[in-house]
Amino acid sequence: MAKKRNSKKHVLKTASSEMKDEFIIIERVFSQDENNMSIGLANIKAIVPDIEANKDKMARAVEIFKRKGVNVAIFPEFTFSGYFWEDTNACRSYMDGAVIENHTEWIENTLRPMLDDELRAIIFNNIGKGPEGKYVNSTFILSVVEDFDYLKEENRYDKIFLPQLEKIYTETGGDDRLVVDIK
User: Fold this and answer.
1) What is the 3-state secondary structure (H, E, C) of 102-145?
2) pLDDT at site 25
3) pLDDT tens-place string over residues 40-62
4) How far is the CA of 5 from the CAs of 1, 12, 130, in angstroms?
5) Which of 89, 121, 160, 168 is the most buried (most CB within 10 A)?
6) Domain 13-28+36-171 adopts which CATH fold?
7) Taking 80 as the threshold, does the pLDDT of residue 87 lie above it?
């Protein structure tokens, strides 16, 4: 008779939860090798309408990740803006202010300086200006790699499978793959 294999992934260590700022921090360790990559997932809820509060949450989460020794920080969809809503005129007016093109200075002056030999990348999602007055729902990689332009089309992922409400506001991306060589 064949032995049953335990297919359950083993968590080597689960630290108890702690609060930092308004964030609940839960740490899980899957390897005893300290040289393995550390990933920080920020499950923050965007405040609508408050782009500046959302950027502040993002910066505070990155500071916590840095103190924890995270190598790659990952943020949820619509990190800056929050989600669309059905009042088209009010939503468009707000979202026009949320597009990535309006926040590159903040990204360069606040987020990029947080990158270093330990925190190597911040992955986040936001909308950008798209064709014919629509937006593009994009995921960006802010990387420590020199001359890596997170805004370039080949360095971002533009969402292609759009839910009904997003179809009103956004244009679908052209490809469902993003391949980035950051060596």
Assistant:
1) HCHHHHHHHHHHHCCCCCCEEEEEEEEECHHHCEEEEEEEEECC
2) 86
3) 999 999 999 999 999 999 999 99
4) 12, 18, 50
5) 121
6) Nitrilase/N-carbamoyl-D-aminoacid amidohydrolase (3.60.110)
7) yes
Tokens for 77?
């969809």
Q: Is the dihedral of CA 181, 74, 142, 36 positive or negative?
A: negative
Task: Give the pLDDT confidence of 106-159 residue by residue, as tens digits.
Answer: 999 999 999 999 999 999 999 999 999 999 999 999 999 989 999 999 899 999
Is pLDDT above 60 for 18?
A: yes
Return mean pLDDT, the chain.
89
C-alpha span between 83 and 77 (Å, rounded): 9
Domain segments of the chain: what residues? 13-28+36-171
Separation CA 85–CA 116 (nearest Å): 37
